[in-house]
Design a protein that fits this description.
Blueprint: E1 13-19, H1 30-46, E2 50-56, E3 60-66, H2 74-91, H3 101-105, E4 117-120, H4 124-140, H5 155-161, H6 168-180
Antiparallel strand pairs: 1-3, 1-4, 2-3
Helix pairs in contact: 1-2, 4-6
């Protein structure tokens, strides 16, 4: 069995990618968005974390969290979010992907991939690079031509707060297209 090791730093910043089972494209549907927001909010109440950036795409999401000082347990948070989402989504009519016998034996539903990808943010430059990656992701995947056209992103809050100038990605679009082309 593979031994997954995660570098955990109490109070750290972490970039995450969480993917739907079989990359099903349902996460941006209104019903799924409501269930995800409710699960996310409920888990944050019991196990707080700050959301630095987030982008929801049809088959996955990216986000950066800042954990509280003295806390490095992002895995439990993700397990709870996935569990709450799955329970509510299926209870209210959501449809799951076909399941393998392995998933059935482990009593896993056909909503999320088993694991998630995480990266500990090393410094301010790494943080900014990952924030930009998150916000540019809908363009990278061909969902929109301009970052500002994707509605399910913290990009809009960055503009409202003045953290990004409106021209930020317009000026850098070619550079980011080249940077993320191989990913």
């Amino acid at each position: 069995m593979t031994d997954y090791r995660r570098l955990k730093i109490e109070g750290g910043h972490y970039f995450f990618t969480v993917v739907s089972q079989n990359r099903r494209t349902f996460l941006c549907e209104p019903h799924a968005r409501v269930c995800l927001k409710d699960a996310w909010t409920a888990v944050r109440q019991g196990r707080p974390f700050d959301v630095i950036a987030v982008c929801l795409l049809p088959d996955h999401l990216h986000c950066i969290w800042k954990l509280p000082d003295g806390d490095d347990d992002f895995s439990t948070r993700w397990a709870l979010i996935k569990k709450r989402f799955t329970r509510e989504y299926l209870r209210t009519g959501g449809i799951e992907a076909a399941q393998s016998s392995s998933r059935i034996n482990k009593r896993e539903r056909g909503i999320w991939q088993r694991r998630f990808w995480e990266h500990r943010i090393r410094d301010g430059c790494d943080l900014q690079r990952h924030i930009d990656y998150i916000h540019f992701n809908p363009v990278k995947h061909g969902l929109v031509e301009k970052v500002e056209d994707w509605p399910y992103s913290s990009y809009h809050k960055y503009i409202e707060s003045g953290r990004y100038a409106i021209e930020y990605f317009t000026e850098l679009q070619k550079e980011y297209e080249d940077m993320f082309a191989g990913e």
